[in-house]
Amino acid sequence: MEMMRSSMLLALLAAAAPGVTSAEELITRNRVGPSDAENALTFRLTAFDLYSADAATAAAFAEMFTVFIEANPGWRIDTQLQTGAIAQEQARIIEQTRAGRGPDCAMIDSSQLATFKDAGLLAPMTAFFTQEEIDDLFPFVREGVTDANGDIVALWWFTDLRVLYRDTTLVPDAPQTWAELQKAALSVANQGLEGVLFNAGRDEAAAFDWLAHFWAQGGELVDASGRPSFFEGENRDKFLNAVQFYVDLVESGAAPRRVTSLASYDDLLASAAAGSTGMFIGGNWMYGQIQNTMPAEQAANWAVSELPGPSEDTRATGTGGWTIAALTDDPAKVEICAGIARLYAGPGNAYQGLLPTSASLYAEYEAFAGPEFEVFARALENGRARPGVPIYPEISEQIQILLGNVLSGSATPEAALDAAAAEVMAAFERL
Amino acid sequence: MASLEIKRIAKTFGAQSVLPGISLEVPDKEFVVILGPSGCGKSTLLRIVAGLEIASAGSVSFGGAPVDHLSPGQRNVAMVFQNYALYPHLSVAANIGFGLRRATLSRKEKRAAVQEIARLLEIESLLDRRPSELSGGQRQRVAMGRAIIRKPAVFLFDEPLSNLDARLRLQMRAEIRALHRKLPTTTLYVTHDQVEAMTMADRVVVMREGRIEQIGTPDEIYCAPQSIFVAQFIGMPAMNIVSARLDRSNSALTIAGERFAMPEFWPDEKALDGEVTLGLRPEHLSLSRTGAGLRANVDQIEPMGSETLVYLYHHGTRLCARTPPETRLASGSEVKLGLNLNRAVLFDPVTQKALYRPNPYESTTGETQWK
Amino acid sequence: MVRSRGERLSDIAVYLAMALLALVFLLPILWLLSLALRTQAEVFLGAARFIPEAPTLDNFASVLRDGGFQSYIWNTVKLSALGAAGAVGFAAPAAYAFSRFSFRGKGAMMLGILSVQMVSGLVILIPLYRMLDRLGLLESHFGTTLLYIAAGVPVTIWLLKIAFDTIPQSLDDAAAIDGLSRLESFLLITLPLAAPGLISAFILNLILNWSQFLIPFIMLSADEKWPISVAIFRFAGASSAATTQLLAAACLLAILPALAVFVILQRWILAALMAGAVKD
Amino acid sequence: MQREQPGRAALPWLLPSFLLLALFYLYPVFEALRLAFTDARLFDATTTLSLGSITGLWGSAPLATVLRNTLAYTLGSVLGQLALGLCIALLVVRAERARLRGTLVLRTIVLAAWVIPAIANGIIWQLLFSEAPFGAINSALRLIGLAPVAWLSDPGNAMISAILATIWQGTAYSMILLYAALRSIDQSLYEAAAIDNATGFERFWFITLPHLRPALLVNAILIMIMTLNMFDTVLALTGGGPGRATEVLSLFAYNTVFRGFELGRGAALSLLLLVISLVLTVCLTLLLPKGRK
Fold it and tell me: Quick one: C15 and C122 in the same domain?
């Protein structure tokens, strides 16, 4: 989902940009297809593809949608834009759907999918996918989109993951372990720059990026029944280890204290572009942004590698991404929605260079041939999705607060963990 | 044109009673001034007549017909306010013509009516101005113009001159009277200024704490007050009030041991015997150095130009005498006071009401004899 | 008037203090301007490039060229103006009643209205969201305008009451005697005379509405309906670092209309603020 | 026509705005009250009556922190705005008396900050306080050889930063109110004091301050209530972080509803906000000069 927040230029301003020229009247600001079509489907999407500020992206998607709508005569898609404020957007979709005014089809962030499943708002789509397609999904993806009845209720059309970026002129070799990372960062810091940056402010990104370090040790946020368990038994030690990793980075000076004010990947990218940091932990999509925002020779200095783990062979990375799901009971509309989802998962993904959610797509599209994708593919093997439980937003909130308190020195890791555990369990009781 | 009848009008604001029940009749075309200290309820009474306030009880009739159910606009009254209440956003002409909005007149007729009024009040040259561009006197005229254009049954004035300077007030007094002569209309005029009351009224109504103290012509009010309140409220300086004892059998009036002969025309009533309060206007006291009279000490003198007021103490009672302009006396010096008992008023010291009042229209001359 | 040496020294001190304060209050906006005039590369040079070496208007141009920005501004103007007009329209009769009638519980009601003003939008927005939803007014400028009006009414009643209080009651009496009904005298006499107060209240509402964030943030999800405050917040959350200069330009352009209205109509705004201040 | 009975006559005049306020304030407040006694969630259609939302708050650690933050933020902002507002108002009045030019410019600049939407204010100050090497204030500090300051990442500093941003924007309001109060002080009092040979400080202490006291008190409470309910600036500036260091009650309520989706708990929190505001309102009415009622 972070991908969405930090997409390229002027996401918002672009949202209102006049449509696309290649499709003439078929695609407008709020509609795809002829305005007098007998069937209409409302589709809530983000402003990063069909209505992208990047003219080329918008044109490519317009063409895909044109092909799609021509293959489905009699249909019109009424498009509704949503923003990057994921929590609010999801809350809004749920409110509206319950009031009967929700979209028929919507992009839903993978981290929110559990909430939607839980609320019983999603229409089964199993009938519109082949068993082959379903089997080809990465396991964590398949698990995420399957509801209690075993039905597929959404298509997870792209995934993302966290990686380590480094300026090779400052850090020639990719650190493989926490210790190596700290050492490399310290050597950069000794040159008067910032060693390594990561999100640790009040944002989901901070919690999610950090969770990789917890997961790398095999930590679990919730137990099999969905009850929070990150503060108990072995999980507790793993949790504290991962916190201590960040604490050591900050205390040693390898990372600046200001990480607690970083709440967006944009801040990381800005520091990279300003040449003031040696490394940062970011999302895979930032690779493309680096190429776009930095002059070519500067961009060439930046390399990507798997997140370091406590040891070289214990690694993990958080995987997110977006899904498309149907919120209507009308099977005809569900089918169109599934078609749109397929469009995004295949050609749409390929065009944007986002990570597919099934192995076969890697082979199918040439776009996934670059060297960075080898890194991503390898990292994806260690991919962990957020647990699909309704308590997750609260756990994330408490981790954000914990990181802020510990890294700013206002609490010890142990005390902060106890406080977070108490809050999470209280909220869990209220669920 | 109509008479005005006020019957047992009462007004309470919350728990506070402003008017306990007041009745008053004003014959057609009469100019009646309601005079009283501030807070006596006179303005409230006026506003009830206008219909701006609703009486708690009682009734108001114009020409015999009750108007209590009518709105101010339907009562056919006109009112001139203390601050003129001209509409600041309208021209003088529009202000004057405002009351004609509902009248079934053509625009031309209305304009003619405004012109007519303006000529009458000599404000024709001001018709296009805004009220803010007018002087106080001019505003006063516009306010009157606005009132008279409607040819009201009853004309109401609420302290209309109190915002003017002394010279202008003098002039406007005369003009309002002249206007009333030209357009005789039943008029109720509220003021706290006794000079206005004395100079303008056909009859004066003196009010106090929501009640009428006295109704009468200005002369009656001045010369023959019905109560000590009226006696002291009217006249500048106020009437002198002295305790006395009347012995009818000996035809003698005793003040602080000094005996005076009782005027023969004082009525022979038993009620007059004993303790009374004597009221005498300052002009009915005379001073001499040696002659007969009350012994008094000069406190202070106020030369006024046309006369000199002498303030004195007699046994702790402060008195005032109006004397010829050339009178000059040193403070503390002792004088003798002569009393013109022919013009004296006698009050009951307990009820404060008049026991005997001289006839204001009959001039009785002659000095009281020293016995 | 001859001023003494001491007075002249203290004048200089006053000047210095004024200049310093002006600078403190101006600098943030100047920094915004500085960012908005920079190229992306210069943004990363921080304060060293307070005065950009190669100032560019490209950032403003690309913000202004965008259809979205125009629609945000238009939406803001529309919501602010309709909300302000509505607040004045609703508040005026009530303010007139509070100014002209005496009735039981008047003081308590006035205080009640004042305390309504204290109710945070946070308290009521979720129930309101559901209510507007049931009424079918969600996602509409009409429903949102109603909320703007409701938000503005309490303070506007107070402002207008103070304005009406300054108009002599005797004008109402005169109008009544001239045959006007209460309503006519309100419309023909009181309102025209209270025009300065009405305008002040309107402009104050306008400016407050311009800043309104919570109501449109919750009530409007379609970006073509957003006012600029919501758009700017969304933009700040969705921009990438490469667009700080664009964010600055958009921010500056977003506050510019309010600033312009304010500077031009300063007198009225001050009048409204000060009317509340000196009334005692 | 029967002349209107005063009480009944007022009703039609009051009705439109009363209906509006009842619909958009009273009803939602009662609805919020009802929600506070449920376990309502944004995502959950089924709600049951429960005291959990309220009892869960009682003595909870985050609430204690949040209330402490709220107190610090509100007091700091209010005192800062009053003090700075008074300084500027005194300066402007002093300059106007001496017929110095430029008072209008200063007044306009200060008031301009007030016109800026709070949300934009938060964004502007985020740019200013940015601790990136190219952040406005820190890069300026570095330019003159000073160490950068952890404006937003240090818990204590973050609160101060939030207060500074709020003061910058809000001072204009108190300045105007105090300016009006200053202007309404009878000049002859100062002339009399000058004849009595009073020093400048004595004039301020014995004339200005006593005359300003009602205005200061009333404004303090008004600004306090406004600050208490304001969350836009903090939301855009720090989002409540680091940790909970700048999470004030209004933002906490907002986060509870829109990040935690706990409607019932959020309603309980917002009602707490309302209660505090109402208590302050009552204080305000007690402090108001009598005639104003």
Answer: no
